[in-house]
Specification:
Layout lengths: L1 E5 L4 H12 L3 E6 L5 H7 L3 E4 L4 H11 L4 E4 L6 H6 L1 H22 L4 E7 L22 H20 L3 E6 L1 E3 L6 H11 L4 E4 L6 E2 L1 E3 H10 L9 E6 L5 E2 H12 L4 E4 L10 E2 L4 H6 L7 H16 L1
Parallel strand pairs: 1-2, 1-4, 2-3, 4-5, 5-6, 6-11, 7-10, 8-13, 9-14
Antiparallel strand pairs: 9-12
């Protein structure tokens, strides 16, 4: 199949390209970031366009490589904090880019299957225990609101124009090459030999942690929508919750440090107490999570020490 990946140069995008190219697919990318031909090939991309997700770039890619049979849409905002600081920028990156993409597909590649990466942030706060896909979305940050608006656009184009779309609501994705968020922050401070780490919140916040290599397999595995439906939403979570405190303790153990962790008790805006997937739908489609958390944390520490040396 001819596969396009928007946001192919991002954290998840790079792992997904590796997964798809390794399966023998022709993979082409569009998004932000300068990649020369050698670097693009190393990632598994047969071609790369550095630019906006707009008709001009999509037409250029189609003219050079042919129309896609499958399109993985990973481009968009990636930070709750940035969405609060610069909400219109986040809207443009997530919502406007999706609208341009879907409108281009409607006119130029209506038979292309779309797999769109969304976020558990659409669920918002006040959830305790596993959250099913049927839960009413109540996003509490611009980031979550914009991801939900992206989903609504996908639903609209599926219902009105027959664009086949699978939305995967990703939970707490971590793994090699992640250069932001909790794990990177803790490892950076461990590398700096801080004896006491003070983190925000209480440490009791629950998240559903998934290794990016498993997430790439998941996205690739749902590329074929079922014949009965043009639109579906799937939780991209494991159904296993782990506290921030346990993640911090696991990283410190893997690092080989005796650093002490304290918590400020002050949560960041837009930060729910619990985000845990009901994974019943994933179990029905037969997907298996292969990388245990301890192994994933060990691999992350190994990667971090390697890239810092």
């Amino acid at each position: 199949m001819i596969v396009w990946v928007t946001g192919a140069n991002g954290f998840i995008g790079r792992h997904l390209v590796h997964q798809l190219a390794g399966a023998g697919h022709a993979v082409h990318g569009v998004g932000h970031g300068a990649l020369d031909a050698m670097e693009a090939r190393r990632l598994g991309l047969q071609s790369w366009i550095n630019g906006e997700i707009d008709a001009a770039n999509l037409n250029a890619l189609a003219a050079a490589q042919g129309l896609p049979t499958h399109l993985f849409h990973l481009a968009g905002g990636s930070s709750v904090g940035v969405s609060i600081e610069r909400p219109f920028e986040d809207f443009s990156r997530t919502v406007a880019s999706t609208a341009r993409l879907l409108e281009w597909l409607r006119g130029s590649a209506p038979n292309c299957a779309v797999i769109a990466a969304s976020s558990a942030a659409v669920y918002g706060a006040d959830h305790f225990g596993p959250i099913a896909e049927s839960a009413v979305p109540t996003p509490m940050s611009p980031y979550g609101q914009h991801k939900f608006m992206m989903e609504q656009l996908c639903r609209s184009y599926a219902q009105s124009f027959g664009i086949r779309c699978t939305v995967v609501r990703l939970f707490s994705v971590y793994g090699p090459n992640l250069r932001k968020q909790l794990l990177f922050d803790i490892c950076s401070r461990l590398q700096a030999k801080e004896q006491v780490l003070t983190l925000g919140g209480t440490g009791n916040e629950i998240r559903d942690w998934t290794d990016v290599r498993d997430v790439a397999r998941l996205l690739a595995s749902v590329a074929e929508p079922s014949s009965q439906e043009t639109f579906r939403i799937i939780n991209g979570g494991s159904g296993r919750g782990t506290s921030v405190a346990d993640i911090a303790a696991g990283l410190i153990r893997q690092w080989g440090s005796k650093t002490v962790v304290r918590y400020s008790g002050i949560s960041r805006p837009g930060d729910p107490a619990s985000l845990l997937a009901d994974d019943a739908m994933l179990r029905r489609v037969g997907f298996d999570w292969r990388i245990p958390l301890d192994q994933g944390l060990a691999d992350y520490v190994t990667w971090f020490k390697g890239q810092a040396s």
